[in-house]
Structure of Threonine synthase:
Amino acid sequence: MKYISTRGQVEPKGFIDTVLMGLADDGGLMVPEKVPTVSESTLQAWSKLSYIDLFLNIFALYVEDEIPADDLRQLAEKSYANFRHPEVAPVRQINDSLHIMELFHGPTFAFKDVALQFMGEFYSYISKKYGEVIHILGATSGDTGAAAIQGVRGKEGIKICILHPHNRVSKVQELQMTTVDDQNVLNLSVKGNFDDCQKIIKDLFADLPFKKQHHLRAINSINFVRILAQTVYYFYAYFRTQEAAAGRPINICVPSGNFGNIFSGFLAQKMGLPINKLIIATNENNILERFVKTGEYKPGDFRSTHSPSMDIQVASNFERYLYYFLNEDAAKVSAYMQQLQSEGQIVLSGADLEQVQQDFAAHGASNAECLDEIRKYKQQYDYLLDPHTACGIAAYELYNGDNEVCVTLATAHPAKFDEAIILCDIKQDFPAPIAALFDMPQYQTVIDHDQDEVVRQLESFYTLQV
């Protein structure tokens, strides 16, 4: 299996080199040269597997001989050993048409743990086996940072720097990152929004001499291994819902801001998983909803919402979808991305827009709608939604058809976003690991939105002996 760039200017790479590259050297995103397809008989065989065995079977199609099977199993088992549920990502039935897949049973109580615990172990494996220096650099709208730091803190041969938007993540998200005092961790709190942080990261990865000099590695979903690890739970969700669906079509509804999580579902669908509808849920930062409904991909005015992890206007994984939408024509992708840079928008219409609407449905929930869903599901089902999952429930209610079943992905534990829960006049008990955070000192450096200052911080950090 080889991997290529969506922009076509990178020689095909193996899996490990693809992971180490992160953002493609031509500014594109790495994708498999050919998406492997899974037969109906294989799907049937996979449907009874445990989460880890399913993970190993899917990864085997993409890794092939680069990682020995025993090594891959050890990495997977170690990655999920500290999850609080034996199934890793259990599926709960709420009513006859709704199931919720709980993706928040990892160490930082968010779906990012499912991929990033593996990425942390994998980077450690590469560092030890190949003598690689690993300097992870990433931006977060809240959950990625905590999960990435948890995955690599204290690991030999690895340093990690995470940028997060100052005062624009939830308090628990902030504490999960900034109460870590390991010497291989640097938290930069940037006066700006997530898109500002993400642009700095992309610009630094696009500076190839800087990237090479400092051994920069990506933890964000620009890295294909993040996408692949998330694809596993789409298969698992589908299989765990089949019996209750009793032959009815199965939809999957996905809270998504950066297009990474929903693209993982799109990849699973391309592999042959018969998902009926992929439903995108966003908030008032609704660039993805506008794209699906109107064909206009154009960043709008940034809004702070009750679901801050989706407060994103520039969805970095959109380019991967565009690549497949354009029938894997890298030249056309490059032209569209150049148009986005020069004109600030991409507009599709006619048959092209119809194709997008066949691929996805989308709904951007308002702040009021989000809180209404939290109150309603607590009252009707005694189930407490976090605000991102609540946006997903709003989209499920709008787009799940008669005689269809939907799995909505619960992307975080509600304790991570108590600011929204309080507004619903609901008091929740915090899990012990979250409650303990409020008594711990914080370690972060607050900086202006300034790429040169980020570079200065990084160069100082990389010279420290750990």
